[in-house]
Amino acid sequence: MAAPLALATAVILHLYAGKIALTGSLPKNEIGWIVTFYALLVLALRIAAEPFLAGGALPTRLFARLWHVSLLVPLTLAGIGIGVRIDAEGVTLERYYVGLAMLASALVLLVQLVPRLRRDIRAMAAIPVALLALSAFGPWGASSVVGSSQVERIVAEFGTRIPGSEVIAVSAEGRDPEAQMRLRSRLWALEAADSLGELVPHLEPELAERLKTALRSEPEQAITLVNEGLGADVSAWAQARPRGFAALKPGEIDSSGYDRVAIARIASSDTRAEGDLEGTAVEGMRFRLEGDDLVASHAGKEDRFPLRAAIAKLPADLFTADARQTAPPIVDLRGNGGRSLRLAIRRLAQDDDGATTFLEFDACYRMSEWQ
């Protein structure tokens, strides 16, 4: 059954290639994965069917004669498609592994030109396994290739020189929504490849330090931190903001007396749990807004921190200041249960009645108070 399936798939792919040649339209996204699965099917079948090829049924014998030829056009087709996508959008983890599968298939085909190795299934099996192993480390590895590709494009489009220095720092503040969407897409590509750290040399010093800290202590928060820090993802804040402010200028938090910092946390009057706003769960300290209180919870313990009075004491001009020139204001809160929090507020939104509906912040706390 497998040989007829492979032959039928080859016919369909060749017909699709003919359609592209006649219409002049380039291959779509899906063709890379289709050809990848087809190539893996053909190679796996060729290796597994080795003992039966010579004396098998007609489809099996036909497959034995044509398997390598059947890969030429699909691989060319997929090569064009993946080349177009990489040229336009850079390498992502998915495109890397599609390209790796195509390279493995092409090398197996080249081996067929060597008479001594032409029917050696050990060589056919070793090539993809070796390439897969090499993808795990080094400058040719998936993480390095995706990181270099995406960071290069991010810096080229969003990099600006920091006044008074030679440093090029990335920022999307003031860019149109389409540009912010492109930056978010590239950041998620870096996160998927575990390569967000590649951005550190191209960030403003304060954001770079925060990102390094997040990658060490709370890696699940790193993508949220860098999205917000670069001004690439303000939709939830903007939608909640009849009145509010953003404070994006690099600054410091005096953490004296505290031994833990929860980085890039978001609390909202939305009834969903913190983290669901970004599609990921948050470990450790969790926050939500209830009425005029910031509610914090950790390890099954919960405390309410009155918020309205503390926000009311913030300078009025904070709500009209330029976000890039405003350092996060520091607010000290005392919970009903006697616990303490120190917040560095990066974004805040209020409704028409003055109630806080959205809060993004870093929070210092004492672990001993939650044990």
Sequence stretches where pLDDT stays below 50 over 5 or more residues: 271-281
- Element-level helix/strand string: HHHHHHEEHHHHEEEEEHEEE
Largest sheet: 5 strands, antiparallel
Strand content: 15-25%
Transmembrane segments: 33-54, 66-84, 96-114
Protein name: DUF4153 domain-containing protein
Organism: Jiella pelagia
Keywords: Membrane, Transmembrane, Transmembrane helix
Describe this structure in words.
The chain crosses the membrane at residues 33-54, 66-84, 96-114. Keywords: Membrane, Transmembrane, Transmembrane helix. InterPro entries: DUF4153. It comes from Jiella pelagia. It holds the Pfam family DUF4153. With 371 residues, the chain is an alpha+beta fold. It folds into 3 domains: 2-134; 142-233, no CATH class; 236-370, no CATH class. 46% of the residues lie in helices and 17% in strands. It is built from 11 helices and 10 strands. It has helices at 2-23, 30-48, 58-89, 93-111, 121-134, 142-158, 177-192, 205-217, 222-229, 235-239, 308-312; strands at 159-161, 168-170, 243-246, 260-268, 286-290, 293-298, 301-306, 330-334, 340-350, 356-365. Strands 3, 4, 8, 9 and 10 form a 5-stranded antiparallel β-sheet that branches. A 3-stranded antiparallel β-sheet has the order 5-6-7. Helix 2 (30-48) packs antiparallel against helix 3 (58-89), helix 4 (93-111) runs antiparallel to helix 5 and helix 7 (177-192) packs antiparallel against helix 9. The longest helix is centred in the N-terminal third of the chain and has 32 residues, at 58-89. The model is unreliable at 271-281 (pLDDT under 50).
